[in-house]
């Protein structure tokens, strides 16, 4: 998957905030595509006439507000998800490193998959709420917000309803990881050069390509998961789901029987269209936030450019740089005091 690269010149909190802000911004801008994708997966009436008409039907039935349904909870989920994912990933990678501190590409991708499952386990109730908020008509809403949706689902359907479909997250992680691995082991052949020579643009294209392939392979599992999250006997029209089922296996059977195999990829057009703007905004917004932090830390001369501060060792961490600056200031003050003493 495309991820932002760790910069040791930022503190851990700065890196986390940069990633969080970039994620919120890119999610918010691409929310209309995400809403149409999830509505297509659930199978609501909006998506019966194709990709373009989905936007028109959604606008006529719910207005502009409908394109940002569930975006608040999606952004809210981003911070705990990122925190758990990062902590778990570091722990797993550390356990699988060799004596020289290296790890194979396959083990790194596997670690990413396991970290994703752990993060999803912690934040899954918020994903269920996101699906419910998107599937409902915001002008005739059953749920008034995140807390109201959580309490209503818990009271009417029980605690396990907040984890309905979670097994599909685990199953979907397998083809997702395989897709990432297949792409990354063929990058040298694609670009005709070694991976350590890739430019920023090449790395961006690599990330988008890996996202497209891995999400394409795991998309049927996500489609069934969204249907399971949305379906509820307590909601109008059973949550808007286009098939009725009693469990995961039965859902697969009913979808293939009534809608055909290709319907498992309903919403994939919106998902594919979303990849480039989402990751483009994610990377560019992260870089802008990083520039501000690097300027604040004293590594660059301006928050509007990457021009390095003269005389600053870029290999030093933020704390080391601040300690070095304090040392220079103390040394300068001592030299000045000594000079004044000699004059007297």
TrEMBL record:
<keyword id="KW-0813">Transport</keyword>
<dbReference type="GO" id="GO:0055085">
    <property type="term" value="P:transmembrane transport"/>
</dbReference>
<feature type="transmembrane region" description="Helical">
    <location>
        <begin position="106"/>
        <end position="126"/>
    </location>
</feature>
<protein>
    <recommendedName>
        <fullName>Solute carrier family 25 member 43</fullName>
    </recommendedName>
</protein>
<dbReference type="InterPro" id="IPR023395">
    <property type="entry name" value="MCP_dom_sf"/>
</dbReference>
<keyword id="KW-0472">Membrane</keyword>
<feature type="transmembrane region" description="Helical">
    <location>
        <begin position="161"/>
        <end position="184"/>
    </location>
</feature>
<keyword id="KW-0496">Mitochondrion</keyword>
<dbReference type="InterPro" id="IPR002067">
    <property type="entry name" value="MCP"/>
</dbReference>
<comment type="similarity">
    <text>Belongs to the mitochondrial carrier (TC 2.A.29) family.</text>
</comment>
<keyword id="KW-0812">Transmembrane</keyword>
<dbReference type="GO" id="GO:0005743">
    <property type="term" value="C:mitochondrial inner membrane"/>
</dbReference>
<feature type="repeat" description="Solcar">
    <location>
        <begin position="107"/>
        <end position="190"/>
    </location>
</feature>
<dbReference type="InterPro" id="IPR018108">
    <property type="entry name" value="MCP_transmembrane"/>
</dbReference>
<feature type="repeat" description="Solcar">
    <location>
        <begin position="198"/>
        <end position="292"/>
    </location>
</feature>
<keyword id="KW-1133">Transmembrane helix</keyword>
<keyword id="KW-0677">Repeat</keyword>
<feature type="repeat" description="Solcar">
    <location>
        <begin position="14"/>
        <end position="95"/>
    </location>
</feature>
<keyword id="KW-0999">Mitochondrion inner membrane</keyword>
<dbReference type="Pfam" id="PF00153">
    <property type="entry name" value="Mito_carr"/>
</dbReference>
């Amino acid at each position: 998957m495309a991820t932002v690269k760790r910069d040791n010149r930022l503190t851990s909190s700065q890196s986390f905030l940069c990633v969080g802000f970039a994620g919120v911004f890119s999610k918010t801008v691409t929310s209309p595509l995400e809403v149409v994708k999830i509505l297509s997966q659930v199978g609501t009436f909006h998506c019966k006439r194709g990709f373009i008409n989905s936007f028109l039907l959604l606008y006529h039935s719910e207005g502009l507000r409908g394109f940002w349904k569930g975006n608040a909870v999606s952004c809210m989920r981003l911070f705990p998800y990122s925190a758990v994912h990062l902590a778990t990933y570091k722990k797993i990678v550390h356990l699988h490193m060799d004596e020289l501190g290296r790890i194979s590409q396959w083990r790194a991708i596997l670690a990413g998959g396991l970290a994703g499952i752990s993060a999803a386990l912690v934040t899954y109730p918020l994903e269920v709420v996101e699906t419910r908020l998107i599937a409902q008509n915001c002008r005739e809403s059953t749920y008034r917000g995140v807390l109201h949706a959580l309490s209503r689902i818990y009271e009417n359907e029980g605690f396990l309803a907040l984890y309905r479909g979670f097994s599909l997250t685990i199953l979907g992680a397998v083809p997702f990881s395989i897709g990432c691995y297949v792409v990354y082991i063929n990058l040298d052949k694609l670009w005709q050069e070694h991976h350590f020579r890739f430019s920023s643009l090449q790395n961006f294209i690599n990330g988008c390509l890996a996202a497209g392939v891995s999400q394409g392979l795991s998309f049927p599992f996500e489609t069934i998961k969204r249907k399971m999250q949305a379906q509820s006997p307590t909601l109008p029209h059973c949550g808007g789901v286009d098939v009725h089922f009693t469990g995961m296996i039965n859902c697969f059977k009913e979808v293939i029987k009534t809608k055909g195999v290709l319907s498992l990829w309903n919403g994939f057009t919106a998902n594919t269209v979303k990849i480039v703007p989402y990751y483009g905004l994610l990377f560019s917004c992260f870089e802008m936030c990083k520039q501000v932090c690097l300027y604040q830390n004293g590594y660059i001369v301006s928050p509007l450019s990457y021009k390095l501060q003269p005389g600053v060792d870029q290999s030093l961490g933020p704390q080391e740089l601040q300690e070095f600056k304090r040392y220079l200031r103390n040394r300068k003050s001592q030299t000045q005091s000594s000079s004044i003493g000699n004059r007297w």
